[in-house]
Amino acid sequence: MFLSVNQLIALFSLCFLTPFIIRKFLSKRRPLPPGPRGYPVVGALPLLGRTPHVALAKMAKLYGPIMYMKVGSRGMVVASTPEAARTFLKTLESNFLNRPTHAGPTILAYDSQDMVFAPYGPRWRLLRKLSSLHMLGGKALDDWADLRAAELGHTLQAMHQSSVRGEAVVVAEVLVYAMANMIGRVVLSRRVFETKGRELNEFKDMVVELMTTAGYFNIGDFIPWMGWMDLQGIEKGMRKLHEKFDVLISKMLKEHLESRNKRKNRPDLLDVMLTNRDDVDSPEQERLTTTNIKALLLNLFTAGTDTSSSAIEWALAEMLKNPEILRKAHDEMDRVIGRNRRLVESDIPNLPYLQAVCKETFRKHPSTPLNLPRSSAEACTVDGYYIPKNTRLSVNIWAIGRDPRVWENPLDFNPERFLSEKYAKIDPKGTDFELIPFGAGRRICAGTRMGVVMVECLLGTLVHSFDWKFDGESMDMEETFGLALQKAVPLATFVTPRLPPSCYVGSN
């Protein structure tokens, strides 16, 4: 028996509307946090626009510090104040330790086999332990301080040569060159790029593309039945990018294995990981796979270069926009260090204004505007609101840094605020929820300590070593959204040496 047209329409309407009726009925019994209604099928996805962190911050002013919305068919809760972030990342942390499944880590990060997106468990703890012991932890950072200093010498030499030739310095290029080589010397026992050139530029572009595309709100992640169409072309681009990175990382592995015997007395991080992989006497859950190793290398060479470099670029842009801040930084450094030698890391505790500039940059321009998403393992209640199971959690770190209830004149770049009694003790390493540029809790960025050291050390060295001059009419401060918050227009500026020529000589 065939149904009439009217019966078909009625049946379709019933199927389409039933979930909404059930949700509305349940929400009366267990109220969800307030939030935008959105549209049928796509939910609030169109409301996020090209800068979701800004759109969500505006919504929070209407709906409050904890919002709930449907993005496609997925539920998402957004925390936009220090108190809300503390609730999710500390009080309810054990319920939000895993990441939601989506295309970015599946395609780019070897099906989430890396440290950033891996499920919380033994393999994730092993990746974290090895990288902390041999690269990212406090003792490891101290052990490779000399390598950082040597690599900074190469960077200063290249910048000095640019100044002699009268060429502008493209800050992002300089920073990626320095950081990729620093990481390469710890992970691979060698510099990745001997000179700035085509290979460096290709690598930089790949890193920026990865950090940008991985932050997109991909339609297929939120409306799974539309995923196969890849309407935005995001997944196609990710697959091409993954192939490029896999070729690069596979080459690193191959070359490293061929030269392994040369490093028996001083193994690097990759040697340690390969030894762990090849240890057949260890239980399987305590051994890495080749895929884990490749995925971790991807983490270190992308997030390790891009997040810190973007923070330093923003800091320099703000200082050039506000020359008085640059003058004060120079005055402090000249008083503490003088102008006859380079800055060394042991100088940094004696440079409170430099540290304040770095904190102010983390506040106003957090490298990660929205924390990497988490997912609720079970339903829970927050401030009387019901949060369903498998709800995606986003903490708007950018909004917290610009909350006028927390920060006086939050749109101003004012390092002095961190020298005042009110803010002096606030630390960016995840304990003070007013300033969490690296996240917080057990899944805080594993490179938090390294990130702070790199930003303070590189920014301080660059500022102390050169006078900076921006020739443009006005500084463009537009943002490009992604996992990391990029400057839309890269900073290019002219530099003039402030120190004796001997300070600009590279070393091995």
UniProtKB/TrEMBL annotation:
Pfam family for this entry, one: p450
Its membrane topology: Single-pass membrane protein
Necessary cofactors: heme
Reactions mediated catalytically: a 3',5'-unsubstituted flavanone + 2 reduced [NADPH--hemoprotein reductase] + 2 O2 = a 3',5'-dihydroxyflavanone + 2 oxidized [NADPH--hemoprotein reductase] + 2 H2O + 2 H(+)
Localization, UniProt: Membrane
Enzyme category, top tier: oxidoreductase
One Gene Ontology cellular component annotation held by this UniProt entry: membrane
InterPro entries cross-referenced by the UniProt entry: Cyt_P450, Cyt_P450_CS, Cyt_P450_E_grp-I, Cyt_P450_sf
Keyword annotations: Heme, Iron, Metal-binding, Monooxygenase, NADP, Oxidoreductase
PROSITE patterns linked to this entry: CYTOCHROME_P450
GO molecular function, one term: flavonoid 3',5'-hydroxylase activity
Annotated family: Belongs to the cytochrome P450 family.
Protein name (database record): flavonoid 3',5'-hydroxylase
Gene name of this polypeptide: F3'5'H
